[in-house]
């Protein structure tokens, strides 16, 4: 099947316009294919190029080298941008700085207004997406009265109303409290279940474990890519990529180092708990 | 130490009255034209008519008088000052009082009354407009009224969007200013004492971080808007709609009749 997103050796330099040869590449030679309906987590230290990658995927930035394709459309061509922006939605980190409307309803409508969706259709979709993110009944609220989690859900609703095929979350949970995080993660899971392609940029290994595939970036390149449970065998690597090591993994490694007979292949909290129970009931 | 009182933007008071229900376009046109025809009134008949219209406005707004007066209060001192100046400076007619060096003539009293009445009526109409129309409605009304000017290069849609974004961010920035002030207070800053210059100076360490953060917000917002497909006013549909009703037409008819009457009474 044709991937919804394809990067062919894409790279980006922030001052490519001035063609300064010494300018650093924020992204270099990235090859990546994202299948329709896939759920990908992107991880990596600050400055590794995650946001730059995200902005290449909807034409906010154009590749300085290589090509980026969205649903068969070249992002390098200006005339494709309106359609690409509709196909690829984006939710940013700061809940306050992505809300345009003075009311919840106005804000959800903003993207649709830009697409030229007729008013009747807008009203229908607003009702539908607010229902989905659990903000129905708050249409007339001022966004500044919403909690952080609610604001991010509003941002998601605004993107969903544009009927995108892909939604990119650029550290969309990082400024939220645990409750808000949960709300947004649940919304992401639901979107994925309904068939939307999800790209979730996050620093949390725990969040990344919800995805089907994890992409780790370092210095503007893709360092590693694979299924999340494979990360469980790579504790040393997590540390090297300066990613937080999840508690069950840390526990497993420490117990093993103490010489307890815990299998290396354990890949989840459940299995770990089970083997610990077995150990305890043996004595 | 009290937290800042958050300003009520545009002092809008929600209610269900005849004036509240009117289309903002009709209200804007009415107030705009009214502010010009006020100057047509030259005699008691003309002024009675204007006062009558202003008082009907007050009644139709169904807003308690004290709230309306609160809206007028800031300009009241200005009105009193102007009236006093006219009272003392204008010569003509009989001498009514002599208080030391100041002589008050009949013409002075007339001038002072006329000027303050005119001033008061103007401010009252403006206040009624902002009390009965929400800032967003005003923005929508202005946008639609300016729409014909798009052809001569007035970016009506973009201006309206700018205004609504400003409205959207006022509470956010206000909250942020509050936070910065608290942080500065925690480090010993003092905003409430000292002479004026010192107090103004104490706000500099508040305003600088506020501006820096506002610029960062603007940059991020611009990006978020672009990501949501914003390309300027062209080809956009609108979720907000304005409905022109029978009452709005009636208001404009009243305006026409009022203008003609004032013109006629002027003679
Ligand atoms: N607007 C910009 N102008 C110049 N350099 C930038 C800009 N944004 C990011 N960079 C640089 O590009 C690199 C990658 O940044 P970014 O994609 O934001 O990383 P991440 O999102 O992984 O933290 C960093 O070295 C950063 O300093
Ligand atoms: Mg980033």
From TrEMBL, chain A:
<keyword id="KW-1003">Cell membrane</keyword>
<keyword id="KW-0813">Transport</keyword>
<keyword id="KW-0067">ATP-binding</keyword>
<dbReference type="InterPro" id="IPR030947">
    <property type="entry name" value="EcfA_1"/>
</dbReference>
<dbReference type="InterPro" id="IPR027417">
    <property type="entry name" value="P-loop_NTPase"/>
</dbReference>
<dbReference type="InterPro" id="IPR015856">
    <property type="entry name" value="ABC_transpr_CbiO/EcfA_su"/>
</dbReference>
<keyword id="KW-0547">Nucleotide-binding</keyword>
<dbReference type="InterPro" id="IPR050095">
    <property type="entry name" value="ECF_ABC_transporter_ATP-bd"/>
</dbReference>
<comment type="similarity">
    <text>Belongs to the ABC transporter superfamily.</text>
</comment>
<dbReference type="GO" id="GO:0005524">
    <property type="term" value="F:ATP binding"/>
</dbReference>
<protein>
    <submittedName>
        <fullName>Energy-coupling factor transport system ATP-binding protein</fullName>
    </submittedName>
</protein>
<dbReference type="GO" id="GO:0015087">
    <property type="term" value="F:cobalt ion transmembrane transporter activity"/>
</dbReference>
<dbReference type="InterPro" id="IPR017871">
    <property type="entry name" value="ABC_transporter-like_CS"/>
</dbReference>
<keyword id="KW-1278">Translocase</keyword>
<dbReference type="GO" id="GO:0043190">
    <property type="term" value="C:ATP-binding cassette (ABC) transporter complex"/>
</dbReference>
<keyword id="KW-0472">Membrane</keyword>
<dbReference type="GO" id="GO:0016887">
    <property type="term" value="F:ATP hydrolysis activity"/>
</dbReference>
<dbReference type="InterPro" id="IPR003593">
    <property type="entry name" value="AAA+_ATPase"/>
</dbReference>
<dbReference type="GO" id="GO:0042626">
    <property type="term" value="F:ATPase-coupled transmembrane transporter activity"/>
</dbReference>
<feature type="domain" description="ABC transporter">
    <location>
        <begin position="12"/>
        <end position="244"/>
    </location>
</feature>
<dbReference type="InterPro" id="IPR003439">
    <property type="entry name" value="ABC_transporter-like_ATP-bd"/>
</dbReference>
<dbReference type="Pfam" id="PF00005">
    <property type="entry name" value="ABC_tran"/>
</dbReference>
TrEMBL record, chain B:
<feature type="transmembrane region" description="Helical">
    <location>
        <begin position="248"/>
        <end position="265"/>
    </location>
</feature>
<protein>
    <recommendedName>
        <fullName>Energy-coupling factor transporter transmembrane protein EcfT</fullName>
    </recommendedName>
</protein>
<feature type="transmembrane region" description="Helical">
    <location>
        <begin position="28"/>
        <end position="60"/>
    </location>
</feature>
<dbReference type="InterPro" id="IPR024919">
    <property type="entry name" value="EcfT"/>
</dbReference>
<keyword id="KW-1133">Transmembrane helix</keyword>
<dbReference type="GO" id="GO:0005886">
    <property type="term" value="C:plasma membrane"/>
</dbReference>
<comment type="function">
    <text>Transmembrane (T) component of an energy-coupling factor (ECF) ABC-transporter complex. Unlike classic ABC transporters this ECF transporter provides the energy necessary to transport a number of different substrates.</text>
</comment>
<dbReference type="Pfam" id="PF02361">
    <property type="entry name" value="CbiQ"/>
</dbReference>
<feature type="transmembrane region" description="Helical">
    <location>
        <begin position="72"/>
        <end position="89"/>
    </location>
</feature>
<keyword id="KW-1003">Cell membrane</keyword>
<keyword id="KW-0472">Membrane</keyword>
<dbReference type="GO" id="GO:0022857">
    <property type="term" value="F:transmembrane transporter activity"/>
</dbReference>
<comment type="subunit">
    <text>Forms a stable energy-coupling factor (ECF) transporter complex composed of 2 membrane-embedded substrate-binding proteins (S component), 2 ATP-binding proteins (A component) and 2 transmembrane proteins (T component).</text>
</comment>
<comment type="similarity">
    <text>Belongs to the energy-coupling factor EcfT family.</text>
</comment>
<feature type="transmembrane region" description="Helical">
    <location>
        <begin position="109"/>
        <end position="131"/>
    </location>
</feature>
<dbReference type="InterPro" id="IPR003339">
    <property type="entry name" value="ABC/ECF_trnsptr_transmembrane"/>
</dbReference>
<keyword id="KW-0812">Transmembrane</keyword>
<keyword id="KW-0813">Transport</keyword>
